[in-house]
Amino acid sequence: MVPATKLSRLLLYKADASPPSCAVRMLGDILGLHFDFKEPKLLAMEHKTSEFKKLNPMATIPVLQDGDFVVSESHAIMQYLVGEYGGEMGKSLYPRQPRARALVDQCMYFDAAVMFHSVKAVALPTLLHGKKGPTSEDTVNIDECYAVLEAYLERNNYVATDQLTIADLSLSTTTAATQIMHKLDNNRFPRTTDWLARMSEETSFKKVAVPGLALLKKMLHARWERN
Questions:
Q1: Which of 66, 93, 207, 220 has the fewest beta carbons closer than 10 A?
Q2: Is the pTM of this model over 0.85?
Q3: How wide is the angle at C-alpha 97 spanned by C-alphas 95 and 102, nearest 5°?
């Protein structure tokens, strides 16, 4: 059991429609953590202020403040939370065995460097610069990400191992976001379709990701209609 004094120190800067923020909050729900929240107004560029950059020089969300310790980037935040507060549950969510952990890291880095970039390539120009919708290049890039997930899922029940890990939390929120832009083809990517359906039944996904991604969908479709 995590001491209440520790739980009360967790401050998360987040946005409900942000897939990485959703992934961190899903992990918090699984671990029974309590967060206090601050929500910078991203469209007003509050995350670009000098004050916010003192917390996170990358000027991105989410950012976690645990007492006098600050860490940004959702994957790093999740790794920290599992290590600091995960207890026995953390052993499966982020395995300690080097090879299993390397496979989880591999999937996390794929999400950070490749798959989430495919979301940003559509979402940011839509919300900030009047993009009218996903282009053919965008859909090709998203399909390439689906192909990687399909290959990972040929080997395991989940993306990294045969158990749910933090990699599934990150990639499921990202994949749910890409559904708004370019839906999975069940015939081409049956394992990925099945995995996302299973993730969608997770309690934490229903509580956090479903309303968060519904908000993102509403925002994007409103802008596409206006643009």
A1: 207
A2: yes
A3: 75
Instruction: Single out the residue of 178, 181, 185, 184 nearest to residue 221, CA to CA.
Output: 181
> Considering the chain, what is the average pLDDT of its residues?
94
Residue 2 confidence (pLDDT) above 60: no
Vertex 119: Cα angle to 214 and 84 (nearest 5): 80
DSSP 131-191: --S--HHHHHHHHHHHHHHHHHHTT-SSSSSSS--HHHHHHHHHHHHHHHHS---TTT-HH
The pair of three-digit structure tokens given for residue 182, joined into one six-digit string = 């370019």
Query: By the 8 A CB rule, do 226 and 220 touch?
Result: no
Using CA atoms, how far apart are residues 16 and 40, in angstroms rounded to an integer? 11
Rounded CA gap, 138 and 166, in Å? 26
203 half-sphere exposure, CB direction, 13 A CA radius: 5
The Cα–Cα gap between 93 and 166 comes to 6
Cβ contact 130:30 at 8 Å: no
